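Possible regression after last week's pipeline update?

I re-ran a chain I had predicted before the update to compare outputs. Posting the input and the new output here so someone can diff against the archived version. Not blocking, just want to make sure nothing changed silently.
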Amino acid sequence: DSTFNGLLGNDVAVHKSIHGVQQLSVGNAWPMLIDLPDIAWHAPRKVTDATMLSTIKKAVITDLKWELPWNYQTGTGDPYNAGKMLAKMANIALVGEAVGISVTKMNRFLDSLASGLEYWINGTSRNTLVYDESWGGVVSCGCRYAYPPPRCLNEGPPNDCPALNGDPVGNGFDFGNGAYNDHHFHYGYLTYAAAGLAHFRPHWATKWAPAVLSLVRDIANPNANDKYFPKFRHMDWYAGHSWAGGVAMAYLNGRNQESVSEAFNAWYGVSLWGRAIGDNQIRDIGRLLAAIEAKGAHTYWQIPSTPNDIYPATFAEHHTAGIIWSNLIQYQTWFGMLQWEVQGIQTLPVTPASELLLNASWTKVAAQTFESTCSGTCETDGWISFLCMLQAVNNKEEGWKCAEKLPPTVYSGEAAGGNGNSRSNTLYW
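New output (post-update):
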């Protein structure tokens, strides 16, 4: 192909794949040098504007009154949304610490976080997490939900777990958790929540470290000799990013991953857990996975310019990939085809580490697309909060004004997009 003349030389065979140009390399080793991210609990810069700082503090004081929805207070829900909201609570506390709120003022809130989290890691959540011997992993039993009062109609393990039936209906429970879909999303949020709580309460970490480690091993196990969990369930070191698809179906287009930002968040959560318990190996495994995922995001999901070395112009003009498969790239999500849905799912959640993920050149065009299409459920379900955060990457004042206008309902437990975010976090970002 004349496109590659002079670029690779006439004596080199090349293959143009859906992931770009592939070139043959001969050797028995492939050294890769990766700069490990080093953002820990807070943003690397303090809030220096006195007015902004005061506003954020007020937001934290208000958010410390936030409570999990009634059903999630007893683990009567799915682990994905539970993880999002528990991670939200940990994040509010960390933002509070960053802006000078004392731990004493946050203790009752941390008690609620501990209570909500422990249901999922001590085996008492009504939608129970169980160990699966066939594939080697922690999976959700599933809940045939009824309300009021919130309850599961099925009896639970060992014999009544609808998520583990292995049929299309069962595979639909909990976003496919029982079939190993999205484990790094689900358990990444729970791990982040555990890390945040452990940061404030080391004694809590001492008690629950084995349980949390089971979640970490499920998604980020580095040990090929571990007889209970596979090595790196999600990360594809050759592809340079994770896969989220599980074992339920053999799709013709191979494996897939939608939200690269939630994958990145999982590895950030693992690194924070390592920091919280003083385990440098776990910390650095998380940092390495996060660095690889960020590079994959910048290469395949975030498309800042056209023409693009990987995608044809007709696709690159979307500026964002929605779902990446082994043999297919889609500009849509699993829950819809609207443009703001694509931008939102590739942004959330936003944490201090997100500045390593959200490339400035991409966020500029992504925010424009987001803003021009965000209406209806984009606003009522809280996705709009992530528009404000994208805007802030290139224009802090614009993002701040956007965030200040948002009603509290965008962060409610019922808001599908915003239930894992908070006013404190949005303003802090």
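Follow-up from reviewer: compared with the archived run. The longest strand covers residues 14-17. Marking as no regression found.
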